Amino acid sequence: MAKNTICVWYDKDAEAAASFYAATFPDSAVGAVIRAPGDYPDGKQGDVLVVEFTVAGIPCIGLNGGPAFKHNEAFSFQIATDTQEETDRYWNAIVGNGGQESECGWCKDKWGVSWQITPRVLSEALSAGGGQAKRAFDAMMTMRKIDIATIEAARRG
């Protein structure tokens, strides 16, 4: 296990979530699956308790902690993309697997974890400041999934 690891709480589907992430994002994998050595409030001995996994190079553990805590937008994975094809692939994988669209490049997977699918061209435009940042920002505010061509056109004015 890495020295610093993100712990993501799941009701009971950490292993399924980790497998989905590993199949969807490059530099992702499922590692150890740790089973409960005894009964606990929301599970039984032998149930999957913890899953070690990596998402786009970030070490994580999924904890099957039960229904006590729910995900919200205060935590999200942000995935930088280089092309519309890559943006579409990740967005469609998440939304098409029981997830839901949100605004400005945000979506949620079927486990309630928030994702920002963010084309680098948008980040570059916002970092540039001035009129191009304002135009790109205004264009982004009208979108769900980010459309790179529209951001590039807005950036140019």
What does this 3D model show about the protein?
The structure is a single chain. The chain is of the alpha/beta class and 157 residues long. Helix content is 34%, strand content 28%. A 4-stranded mixed β-sheet has the order 1-4-3-2. The chain is elongated.
Could you report the average pLDDT, rounded to the nearest whole number? 96
What would you call the shape?
Answer: elongated
Number of strands: 8
Rounded to an integer in angstroms, the radius of gyration calculated over CA atoms is 18 Å
Largest sheet: 4 strands, mixed
Quickly list its features.
8 strands; 157 residues; alpha/beta
What does this entry show, briefly?
With 157 residues, the chain is an alpha/beta fold.
Topology:
Blueprint: E1 6-10, H1 14-24, E2 29-35, E3 48-55, E4 58-64, E5 76-81, H2 84-96, E6 100-101, E7 106-108, E8 114-119, H3 120-128, H4 130-140, H5 148-156
Parallel strand pairs: 1-4, 5-8
Antiparallel strand pairs: 2-3, 3-4, 6-7, 7-8
